[in-house]
Specification:
single chain, 127 residues, mainly beta, seven-stranded mixed β-sheet, four-stranded antiparallel β-sheet, 1 helix, 11 strands, globular
Length: 127
Amino acid sequence: QVQLVESGGGSVQAGGSLRLSCAASAYTYSSGCMVWFRQAPGKEREGVAAIWRGLGSTYYSDSVKDRFTISRDNAKNTVYLQMNSLKAEDTAMYYCAAGSVYGGRCFLDGPWRYSVWGQGTQVTVSS
C-alpha cells in the first residue's frame, strides 16, 4: 500500500513560491525523521530539509536555508515544504522520505538512511 504521497509541484517563475505536501500513513508518519530530498538530471540526490518528530528540530541544506521551511501537521499526518524565492537551480524532482533517527538527529546526507519513499513531485522554475 502507498505510504507516502507527494503533491504540490508545478512550474513557476524565478522568485515565485510553491508549497509541497507529503501525506503519510499513520505508521509511516510516526517515523523519527521526515525528510525532503530532490534530484536534478545529472546530479546526485540531495537532502534539502528534515524534521525530527521527537523535538520538532529542523535541518536545512545550505542551498535552501532561509528560503525553504519544513513543517508538519500531526492531525493530518502530513509534512510540508514551503519554498520561497525559487531559483532555476531548484528545478528537480522532489521526494519525501521517512526513517529512523540516528545519533539524536535527522541527517540530510545518505539517502540510504531512509526506508520509505514517495514517488516524487516535479518542480520546475523558469528564469
